[in-house]
Amino acid sequence: MTSPALLLQVNGETRRVLVPGQTRLSTVLRDELGLTGTKIGCDAGDCGACTVQIDGVQACACLVPVAQAAGHAVTTVEGLAATPMGAALQRAFLHHGAAQCGICTPGMLMAASELLAAEARPEEAAVAAALGGVLCRCTGYRKIVEAVCDAHRFLGGGPEPRAPWAGCAVGERLPRADGPAKVTGTDRFGADAAPDGALWLRAVRSPYPRARFAFGDWAPLLARHPGLARVLTAADVPGRNGFGIYPDIKDQPVFAEGEVRYRGDCLCALVGDRAALEAIRTEELPIAWTQLAPVTLEDALGGEPVQPRWPDNVLTTGRVVSGDAEAALRTSRHSAAIEIETGFVEHAYIEPEAGWARRVGDRIEVFACTQAPYMDLEEVAGVLGLPQAAVRIIPSACGGGFGGKLDVSIQPMLAIAAWLLHRPVRAVLPRGESMASSTKRHPARIAARAGCDAAGRLTSFAFEGLYETGAYASWGPTVAGRVPVHAMGPYRVPAVAARARAIFTNNPPAGAFRGFGVPQAAIAQEALWDRLADAAGLDRLEFRALNALRAGDGTATGQRLEHSVGLVECLDALRPRWRALRAAAAAANAQADAEGGRRRHGVGIGCMWYGIGNTGMSNPSTMRLTLGPDGLVFHNGAVDIGQGSTTALLQIAADALGLPVAAFRLVLGDTDLTADAGKTSASRQTFVSGRAAAEAGQALRQAILLRANAGPEARLALRDGRLLVDGRPVGLETPLEGIGRFDPPTRPLDADGQGIPYATYGFAAQLAALSVDLDLGTVHLQRIVAAHDVGRAINPTLVEGQIQGGIAQGIGLALMEEYLPGRTENLHDYLIPTIGDVPEIECLLIEAREPLGPFGAKGIGEPALVATAPAILSAIRDATGASLTRIPALPHRILEALHR
Amino acid sequence: MPAYHRPTCLREALDLLAAVPAMQPLAGGTDIYPARAAAEAWLQPRDRPLLDLSALPGMAGIAERPDHHRIGAGTRWATIRDAGLPPWFDGLRGAAAWIGGRQVQSRATLGGNLCNASPAADGAPPLLALGAELELACREGRRRLPLSSFLLGNRRTALAPGEIMTAVIVPKPGRGATARFDKLGSRAFLVISLVSVAVVIEAEAGRITRARIAIGACSAVPQRLPALEADLAGLPLGLAAAVPEPAHLAPLAPIDDVRASAAYRRHAALVLLRRALAPSLAGAAA
């Protein structure tokens, strides 16, 4: 069928397109017109990333047949700056740090600019209503609201962007170095670019949690679809048909061999032209299935093995034992016990997995969204059977990760396809496939007990956690190792017995998700403290302050914490808010009592600690600076997935070197051009790569001073490409280099979990104030106050962005998020917080300097989330007495708990 | 890609539909495209041809007649949300402001919401409570059908092969009519109802002359509650909130699903109902 030409008015230009009229407008904008600033997150109107304006009114471009847009004025992010308010909004976003990963940013901007065209100085409620249809997984929305409310101030320029003097960048609220591309729609995410002539790849995935399968003859399918170039199965994998996080556990096959182990497991892949792939129906595929009874967490222990290598379905056991916890519990004046259960949680990054691969001679290049380029490199080399030097990974802009893009997804199969076909091959996962196939947060079943003496001092803590690790190992060993170290929280507990086991089932692989199992443990641990505090007759905050770790204390792993233990300062900062919020809640409850109101107010508290970097394992980072005729270049291999490491590391390197950030050119991520910085996980980039960046800056400074024969206090300047040292020019014909490397000092844990698992820890305490509708079980969050010891805030705006975004995910974990395979594989059945679900958040930054860290800094990425759910659940208990044992605290569960 | 037609007159649309009965009418696209995305993710491309109704003249807009309002089936939710309408439309307008996000409200249509026939369709309860009728066109002519007879089940309607919904007819209620809509979901925006409640109350001199009440998302088809309506008639407005009892919910048949348990839905329906009948509405009506 030939399609009539359609005339579109896009950003003021008339564009002629020849596509079927029902083609999604989003597809036409991106694929026909090259306007890839419009992002696609779900193709279902659930996420709003593709929001454009049609005649000035916001619409999801993924839901609009292009024929309906013909003859109307379409505005995309590429056309936003044409209006003064659009340009002002972009500047406001940069100033306020409203863009993190940037994948939702174009949609946010287009939705907000509709509002601002009608109302230049909107109230917060109007902003929320206007942006309610765009999901953001990074920011927690608060800085977006601020930017939109504030946009009018940026008409005609607004406040000058900060350009600190040399040596003064650390501590400054610099706008993101990679921000302009994010607010103009020019950043390149995984789906935004591919080499010309790239074929497409579609994975074929199991609809069953467990089944055996056999392939029949592919020839009829290939004959029926001439555009189908090749079908790839396990037999086609040139190297090892397996990948996985640990060098000795490559248990997840690229293409399954005879058995699939979860709904979403990959059997084979179809490679060909896009139209051909889109026409292929699952029932055409020659696959004979034999369904098998899936192994669930109920029957995993003692049941059939999910993988033969682990006959008992126990992947790993982690334990920490110090003292005699049982004996101490028996003699404790007060004791408490709790059992809780949490579900799978989906990362719900708004950018589904996407990228391309191409063969360049005897090398392979992979461009994809990732948190760990060097791990991708190792996996791709492994499955292709190539030396690592033959692999180049080019990270795309990463539209959210949160741990979910640490494991490879499409990279191995793209690489295999491109290698075998000698053609570039690209893939973009549909939202449903992304959710079905990707890793999740581990569901946990936790039983914990604790005791304290009459004065409220903790005596003992016992913890038993079953963590469902799903079909493949992924990060299960990391979770099982990290949980027992953290399970008692940031407190002095003389006797500890903590065990966590990662258990295989026929569910999606549970992997890394912001906190590696610690958020689940914190829910149990903090609930116990509330009970013990009540039993001992202590205020809940004071109970925590009494028991809080302090510098000089030992931990349950036998580590003495010498520096940077800022929990007491966090609690001190919270105390006045705690008292005020408690008083306000009591007054509101008294009024409700008097008036027969059905809302009960409460205030809760949660504390956390989090070891920065890998657990008792080497995790180095290397950073490199060069200075030569082509200027000052920062070769930074740390992937910025939105958290801001590109900017923070630049601030660190700049101050260590003694030149302003504007002097630097950035080379980021590409494994051919940057050294291994390690993965963006474990909250490690600011601490580990930041320290490496500081070392690199100092090394280059030393080299400069040596060449200039100058003293340590010399002032550096770069003017028009010329280096000046104390005003005197220094030749750069021979380039200079500074390399910095840092590997945090740790000592592996022994069989009892004794050792030095982490070089430093982040600490935090958060308050949540909320009300509960006693009739409906619904929760209304009023305010969250978060006090975080970050060592040193390299960039306070970025740190606050991490805290607010982590809190939003904590809200989701506490109140709404639960992934059910086969049932919530989209973003309207799987609910994450919207702009209306995140209350006002006050961030209090505590800076207990870490001597090992760059300028005293440690990490914030995961600490941001851990304390939130415990604080919310504590507040629900405070308001109603209801103690939730099944998380999330959905309204019906709260009502059940109320009536228990 | 399946065939696609975008006729510019109703006659042409009806002819196309008669020629290809499998053709799927498309209005705002906000249900059809998500369903396609879900299917395509599992290699199940949809090949039903599409009949885009958005270019048909006279399908959108709200017109007042002596005894009713006529709302074109192609009227978008944003239009209803922002329209200046009499108070008995407050429920429908409330629903309009809550359907998806603004992006969906700006494209999705009233007719599409009803034809999609989701048990949780927010458009249905307010219109059931208003006693709305639908205008359905086919090549032979037009017919009217009460909404209550149109909705047959989960995703099932009485739309006959070859028919297109052209308008929703909302009869004007008696004097002093007010309306309210409330829904319960698990987050602030972009939320599918766990329970929705629509109430239209007519009152004179502080007494209810007629109450019409509908509940959504608690049965395959949103339901009116005739027993409750009968019990409310004649009562002082101030007493209305105390009237609903569990027995009044007999027409409901809620299910357990990923969003809530059946028991919770039944309970929440009663709570929302009592609140919808609470004095502030009475005060407004008095």
Automatic annotation (TrEMBL), chain A:
Gene3D superfamilies: 3.10.20.30, [2Fe-2S]-binding domain, Aldehyde oxidase/xanthine dehydrogenase, a/b hammerhead, Aldehyde oxidase/xanthine dehydrogenase, molybdopterin binding domain. Pfam families: Fer2, Fer2_2, MoCoBD_1, MoCoBD_2. The keyword RNA-binding does not apply. GO terms for molecular function: 2 iron, 2 sulfur cluster binding; iron ion binding; oxidoreductase activity. Keywords: Iron, Metal-binding, Oxidoreductase. Residues 4-80 form the 2Fe-2S ferredoxin-type domain. InterPro entries: 2Fe-2S-bd, 2Fe-2S-bd_dom_sf, 2Fe-2S_ferredoxin-like_sf, 2Fe-2S_ferredoxin-type, 2Fe2S_fd_BS, Ald_Oxase/Xan_DH_a/b, Ald_Oxase/Xan_DH_a/b_sf, Ald_Oxase/xanthine_DH-like. CDD domains: fer2. Signal peptide: none annotated. Belongs to the xanthine dehydrogenase family. PANTHER family: XANTHINE DEHYDROGENASE, XANTHINE DEHYDROGENASE SUBUNIT D-RELATED. This is Aldehyde oxidase. It comes from Roseicella frigidaeris.
UniProtKB/TrEMBL annotation, chain B:
It comes from the Bacteria. GO terms for molecular function: FAD binding; oxidoreductase activity. Keywords: FAD, Flavoprotein, Oxidoreductase. Residues 1-175 form the FAD-binding PCMH-type domain. Pfam families: CO_deh_flav_C, FAD_binding_5. Gene3D superfamilies: 3.30.465.10, CO dehydrogenase flavoprotein, C-terminal domain, Uridine Diphospho-n-acetylenolpyruvylglucosamine Reductase, domain 2. The keyword Flavoprotein applies. InterPro entries: CO_DH_flav_C (IPR005107), CO_DH_flav_C_dom_sf (IPR036683), Diverse_Substr_Oxidored (IPR051312), FAD-bd_PCMH (IPR016166), FAD-bd_PCMH-like_sf (IPR036318), FAD-bd_PCMH_sub1 (IPR016167), FAD-bd_PCMH_sub2 (IPR016169), Mopterin_DH_FAD-bd (IPR002346). This is Xanthine dehydrogenase family protein subunit M.
